[in-house]
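Issue 218. Parser rejects a valid record. Input:
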Amino acid sequence: MSGVTGSVTAKCKVLVYAERKHVHNERHRRHDGPRGPRHLIDNPDEDQLALLVEEVPSVEGGASIEELAELMLREGARRVPVVDGRLEGIVTITDVVRAIAAGDAPGDAAVGDLAKETVNCVYEGTPLPVAERELSHAAVPYAVVLGDEGDHVGMLTEVDVIDVARVVEGEEETGGSIASDDDDWKWESVRTVGNSYMPTRNVELPGGPVSEFMTGDLVAVSGRRSAREVARTMIEHDIEQVPLVSGDDLAGVVRDMDLLEALV
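Output the parser choked on:
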């Protein structure tokens, strides 16, 4: 694991403690793991061992929260091990957002300067399996749900999808098993003696419309709100992205990772 050193502060130590305290009751609407819901959907056959062999960036306990934010942004990491000779704990994007909300980290920047203008959207009548593919192809974990009039009526996230996904185990035919005559190894003597199968694991989704699975109570903010105010909104509603609105129009979306830009 690659380390990041920095000035000695209590910031990361406080965040590590917060993660230790909350690690067993992390609220389900957020997902801070290195392998998110998208990976679970796309790789249902992967076992837990595969999660242990990946090289991940790490941070030292004395690093400042600004250095941590810079590392998370650079590596696209939502969860970072804290290492001081040994593993001390894990700090997550949620811990950083919580620190911004509490005033323990800079948060005065207007979110209008941090938000992304591109917004991923999906129609409320779209079948969920199609919407899941749209999220995958857009490479984002959310879609603002639009109604018949083009108005925003909700939010669909990868967590909503994984909540209703069902893993189905089965078998797949791999072809015939091959045997040959003992006395003469020739192509003519090779024959099929039976079919062989391998176990498979697939993800199935219900075919209902997005409107049945989305979060209907959409929380939105204006670009004039500060990063600290939006961080508090995210913590209060247990969400990781908030649409940005200008009047009744969508103007962008601010994600929890965008708030880290206020720290660097």
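Fixed in the parser; the record now loads. The longest helix spans residues 11-22.
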